[in-house]
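Reviewers of the previous submission asked for a worked example of the structure-prediction workflow described in the proposal, so we include one complete record here. The input consisted solely of the amino acid sequence. No template or homolog information was supplied to the procedure at any stage.
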Amino acid sequence: MGHHQPARQSRHHGRSRASAPEPSTATQTIDQARQLIDLIASDDLRPVIVLDDTDRWLSTSYQPDNPAVRSAVFGRVVRILAEDLGTAATTQTDDRI
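From that input alone, the workflow returned the following structure tokens.
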């Protein structure tokens, strides 16, 4: 007869530690964004997504002036916002830079 052992839980200071949730897939992320946009629109509001400081986060010290990143953001991401989510989007940059 086999011996069944209960699943072990990692303990830290007397509390159980939960494992990190699995990362969302792209489809799940788009579905969640659609639900949020629909929730806002249900109050007769027009959701607009502002991509703030794109000049700063598209040009980082570890990836300066990367055309592939810019192409992905302003190609694929903007297309997803417009076509899949059906929402308006705009960019905002800091003109003091």
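Helices lie at 26-41, 54-57, 67-84. We consider this example representative of the routine output the project will generate in years two and three.
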